[in-house]
Amino acid sequence: MRPMQTGGSRSCEQRWILHIDMDAFYASVEQRDQPAHRGRPVIVGADPQDGRGRGVVSAASYEARTFGIHSALPISQAYRLCPEGVFLPVRMSRYQEVSSHIFRIFGRYTDLMESLSLDEAFLDVTGSLRLFGHAESIGRRIQTEILAETGLGASVGIATNKFVAKVASDLRKPNGFVQVPPRQEAPFLQPLPIERLWGVGPKTARRLRQMGCVTIGEVAARPQLELGAAFGQLGAHLWELAQGIDTREVIPEEPAQSVGAETTFAEDTADPLRIRQTVLALSERVARRLRVDAIQAGALTLKLRDETFRTQTRSVSLSEPTDQSQDLYRTVLMLLERLPSGRKVRLLGVTASRLSDLRGSGRQLSLALNPAGAKQRRLTEAVDRIQARFGKRAIRPASLLASL
After folding, report:
1. Is residue 136 annotated as a catalytic residue, yes or no?
2. Is the pTM of this model over 0.85?
3. Marked catalytic residue, from 30, 63, 114, 120
4. Are both 151 and 206 inside the same structural domain?
């Protein structure tokens, strides 16, 4: 049984914060699920279309990174850098499934978890030391259990605060493990480049270099008032981080406010069939994510960007919360009809909001009183099980077979 904790201040005791970051998460999941791709440059993201694709890279394996490929890189550029790479589509439901397993491992050691993404989190283990030993032992156990149970590598940073733990986890990837002892935060940060400081982007980095600051230690050596005069409130923030000071608590994740999916067409299109098929595919993706998280949507938003890059949205509240694909699809089609036509479509997006937790809600009772709804849910659950085992292409709407 793990210790139950709260997020109150711990000024009277030494905090221990872990930052755990999965290594090339999406790409590593693909290499694990498809052993033939292990050791090869795997690029997860949009279809490169032989260098003509218009999307971006979502993740790149370490083998792909040696070619200069990284997340957010245009997929066309990634193809030019590594045409022999393995280009795979994003399988978000699969990554969410694996992420849930990883976070269950975190939960064995603490309830104070702050999720930054599917593959990254802060853990405050201060209250877990008596039960599990020192922070290093907890970090090693978590890293070992992730590898044993998921076959995936994780990098761990351990420190007395969030910022230093985050920097530490990133230094020796993949499978890194770095612990910064108390009162060694500033010496640890001193030789690192200024870009490691949270809040330092290209413009701020350029101004810091003009002031003669290239390393974090050089920022720390400047008077706080000087940095404040140059950068305002950001300057005081940078000075504190450079000293290794970060008093922010680990705050458990709040429920998601929305769930969405969008796609950019390879070529702008005015084909009504193609547009409807895409709306259906997006509705399927959003509905599946709702069901994976056991939540339902009370409102929907359609996003459309046309060939002139003009973006329009339309939203509607639902008469009853739902996580069913057909409910979302019918509603989004209605929203689509509200938008002016005449221009080609470049991008479509569907977002579900006003989310409610299905578990323990009265929705279960309403399903029991609605035989048609219960039958539809049983069918949907059967489809989810088939797709989870054999992939999303194993079973899907017939209208998507020819084009998606």
Report:
1. no
2. no
3. 120
4. no
